[in-house]
Write a structure and sequence with these properties.
With 580 residues, this protein is an alpha/beta fold. 49% of the residues lie in helices and 17% in strands. A 7-stranded mixed β-sheet has the order 5-4-13-14-15-12-16, sandwiched between helices.
Length: 580
């Protein structure tokens, strides 16, 4: 059995792996480039399988007790007024703020202190070379020493230097076109327990989040393709941010002043790590070094804890390193692919560049925050994320010893629908939706509906009737292509959910025309339009896991729904005498 293990990186993934391997009787050394334990960092959350692992470690309650106290998320305008908010007390574990919300440094220390009982930590050192042979990996450190290990676990983060040594040119990063600066600033009396999010024109945003240390965690983000702004030292990065946010409004002056005085400034462009393999001989990657999904995904910490646990359990369960690494990758790949499935348009949608875009975002979020819409969205977005089956590792969790449980073999997937059946279903569903829509349309064949619609007070940005007539065939074609592709995919959880959401959205299109034009219920139709944004976004997100082209052709449908929601809400507000 492999016994002498090197872990590089003493953050979440590295400390979790060291905790489990140390208790499974491995001789574990953790090396960390920083001169001492790094206690800094911003808000992170732990959900799903990550909490299961913490519970097995006996650390879940301690993590909850060290939480930030954040109570929800609020979008604010330039005067600090709330445009939309989502409270944890209403959403539970499905909101942007999780029940287990904690600072990165607090969680890392919670893992580090018990891990250090069974593992040796060496700070201020790093790997500069690894040479492997049939017996071991020979590791040379920056301190000058050379030592041999049975296995090396790389848990260093998105820019891992050791990964570049062992897997040169294998990472194909996916840039998310979003740069974020993180730092801590003094707390003021008006800082509450909400994550406050302010959007400024030009794709800029300012976020303020509470912590339990009497300070406030700040973020400055800019949505644009990377242009080298993250290069250079901290002074150059801060100068760039001061110039970009000088006229941003809200609390930008306070945040920029705090940035100048902070001692924990970090700024980088977000990119995902895309590796074709996570192991090479005796070296294996885990955490962000293997699969960084970026903070946009909201699952990075959960992936780090879960992945490190699965890796340690697989290594404890066999003498064959190759088999352990392969089993670890098979178990974690589906969850990682789900986590990395964030559409690249997401940062752009959440960081609008124009005042109209910001108003649209606030209106959509405001409607989505209504209780009945929120409940629907919560059900649509809740997802297990193809998490690995942790019950396979019950024995190691109890005994801290190698597990002899047999491997589970995934059942084969059933095939998708034939081309003829898929075309028939698409034609039937979209045909029915089109018939309902045409029955309610304000065209010359429905003079009463046409007269009522023309009398409504509509905003100046309402497109002409010809634009509606041109847009809908394009959107319906996208839905048709997406539905056909999904129906042709093999049956599976993601594919079946995506097909269900596709059916729901096409049905809701027809239902909306019935509410708005036939029933003249402007309030109900505005709420239904917001619900369609939620269900449409859910459809694109889930479809991306089953068939990315299907998701891509569905994205314009969601964008149009967002605009339609803003329009419907404005018409409802400007025509109070009409039906609710």
């Amino acid at each position: 059995m492999s016994r002498r293990i090197l872990v590089t990186g003493a953050s979440i993934a590295g400390n979790t792996a060291a905790w489990w391997l140390g208790r499974a009787c491995f001789d574990v050394t953790v090396v960390e480039r920083a001169p001492s334990f790094r206690a800094g960092g911003q808000n992170i959350d732990v959900r799903g399988s990550g909490r299961v692992v913490l519970r097995r470690m006996g650390l879940e309650q301690a993590a909850l007790e060290q939480g930030t106290g954040e109570e929800g998320t609020a979008w604010v305008d330039g005067d600090g007024r709330i445009a939309a908010q989502f409270l944890t007390s209403d959403l539970g574990s499905d909101g942007l703020t999780a029940e287990l919300e904690i600072l990165r440094g607090d969680l890392a220390r919670l893992l580090y202190e018990p891990a250090a009982v069974h593992a040796s930590y060496r700070f201020g050192d790093s790997v500069v070379a690894i040479v492997q042979d049939d017996a071991a990996a020979s590791v040379t450190f920056s301190s000058g020493r050379t030592e041999r290990y049975d296995a090396v676990i790389v848990a260093e983060g998105v820019g891992s230097a050791t990964r570049k040594l062992v897997f040169p040119r294998e990472n194909a990063p996916r840039w998310m076109n979003l740069s974020i600066a993180y730092f801590t600033i003094p707390r003021t009396d008006d800082d509450d327990r909400l994550w406050r999010w302010y959007n400024a024109v030009g794709g800029r945003s300012i976020s303020l989040r509470p912590d339990r240390h009497g300070t406030t965690r700040a973020m400055l983000s800019v949505q644009q393709p990377p242009g080298g702004e993250q290069d250079g030292d901290a002074d150059r990065q801060k100068a760039w941010l001061r110039e970009r946010f000088a006229d941003a409004g809200w609390q930008s002056a306070r945040v920029l002043d705090g940035m100048d005085a902070t001692d924990d400034f970090y700024f980088d462009g977000l990119r995902q790590v895309r590796m074709p393999r996570w192991s090479n001989g005796r070296v294996v990657l885990t955490g962000d070094a293997a699969w960084c999904a970026t903070p946009v995904a909201g699952i990075g910490t959960t992936l780090a804890i879960t992945g490190a646990y699965v890796l340690a359990a697989e290594m404890a369960g066999t003498d064959d390193l190759r088999a352990a690494f392969d089993a670890y990758e098979r178990s974690m790949r589906p969850m990682v692919e789900d986590g990395q499935g964030v559409p690249k348009i997401a940062p752009r949608l959440m960081n609008p560049h124009s005042r109209t875009g910001i108003r649209l975002l606030h209106n959509v979020l405001g409607v989505a925050g209504r209780p009945y819409v929120r409940k629907l969205a919560s059900k649509l977005f809740s997802n297990d994320g193809r998490e690995p089956d942790l019950s396979r590792y019950d024995e190691i969790a109890v005994n801290m010893a190698p597990s002899a449980q047999p491997r589970e073999v995934a059942p084969p997937k059933s095939g998708g629908a034939s081309p003829l059946v898929a075309l028939g279903v698409v034609g039937l569903v979209l045909g029915a939706s089109a018939i309902v829509g045409r029955r309610n349309a304000p065209d010359p064949s429905h003079p009463a509906i046409r007269r009522w619609y023309r009398r409504l007070d509509k905003p100046g940005y309402t497109p002409p009737d010809a634009a509606f007539g041109a847009v809908w065939p394009v959107l319906e074609s996208g839905l048709a292509v997406g539905g056909y592709r999904l129906l042709r995919q093999p049956s599976g959880a993601a594919r079946n959910t995506a097909v269900g959401l596709w059916l729901l959205n096409t049905a809701m299109v027809g239902g909306w025309t019935q509410l708005f034009f036939r029933k003249k219920k402007l309030g109900a139709s505005a709420a239904a339009s917001a619900a369609m944004v939620a269900s449409g976004a859910a459809y694109v997100a889930v479809a991306a896991r089953a068939d990315k082209p299907a998701a891509a052709v569905g994205a314009p449908f969601v964008a149009w729904l967002g605009f339609a929601t803003l329009l419907a809400e404005r018409i409802r507000r400007d025509n109070p005498a009409n039906g609710r």
